[in-house]
Specification:
Blueprint (H helix, E strand, L loop, with lengths): L7 E2 L5 E8 L5 E2 L8 E7 L4 E8 L5 H7 L5 E4 L4 H9 L3 E4 L4 E2 H13 L4 H8 L3
Parallel strand pairs: 2-6, 6-7
Antiparallel strand pairs: 1-2, 2-4, 3-8, 4-5
Amino acid sequence: MSQSITVTTNGDSKPVLKVAFATTNMEDIDAHFGSTKQFAVYDVSANESVLSKVIRTEDKDTDAAVASLKGIDIVYFVNIGPTAAAKVINSQIFPIKYKEVVAIEDELVKLSRMIDENPPPFIKKILERSV
């Protein structure tokens, strides 16, 4: 079963990405995918980034965590196991791993700039799937 990536539009018809961040404090990308207690989900466009929801994860259940991210285009974390990474990718969610803690706000600014100026191939591919 293939899952399509959902890209919505805001009022001025700009593309919007659904992006999830594994976080312990709602400010930093600072959690391991498999042990995070929450994902902060943002709608990101060239003009703005808006917190749309927080997904809480109670158990260390990879299948449940991946299922909870249905409709997400990109997920960020500081680490992930190989089995979980395969499940994320098979769900057509683009995984991004950082080796150190990064501020969510910094990444949101980078994403908005990429969408507005010249998106890299992986962002273009995500955006093209909605057409």
